[in-house]
Amino acid sequence: MTTPLRIITIREPWAHRLIHDGKDVENRARNIVGAYRGPILIHAAGRVDHDALTGAERQKIRPGRLLGVVELIDVHHASTCADTTNDRTSTGLCSEWAEDDCFHLVMRNPRTLTEQIPHAGGLGLRHVTPDLAAWVWDHLNDPAPWLCAQDHGPTRCSWCGQTTAAEGVRRYA
Description:
Low-confidence stretches: 148-173
Number of strands: 8
Number of domains: 2
Structural class: alpha+beta
CATH superfamily of the largest domain: Hypothetical protein
Order of helices and strands: EHEEHEHEEHEE
CATH topology of the largest domain: Archaeosine Trna-guanine Transglycosylase, Chain: A, domain 4
Oligomer: single chain
Shape: globular
Largest sheet: 6 strands, mixed
């Protein structure tokens, strides 16, 4: 069984910030991911939020392309994290990137692709075709932690250093 892979389209510069600049929360008006947890391919939308761009970002962004993969670890509404104490933010929200009165898609472990290829966008969280998923797994710059499984086999896992199944483990553990 291979790791499921989904894709989400996010406007620039927010997509770039998820993969390259430490953004760890995507804010949405509704929970578009449901109960899904696991790897998500980040697609930079063709449309750009020009008001949010900094001068340096204007040269870096690549609208309409696949940028990398992140691990979706949680989804919750701002009202459920606003009451928790968090040393990272002055707002009490789960992240400095989190906004009030919306759903927070909490992500970690961003991994860039060796090549940013053009791709069509879409709404919501979508399934990735098997061919695209295979291409993505083969073009990650750094092995993703969710490729590491609990049942290690004969080849070495480049994430944890233990051995993994011969064909490479793609299970969300």
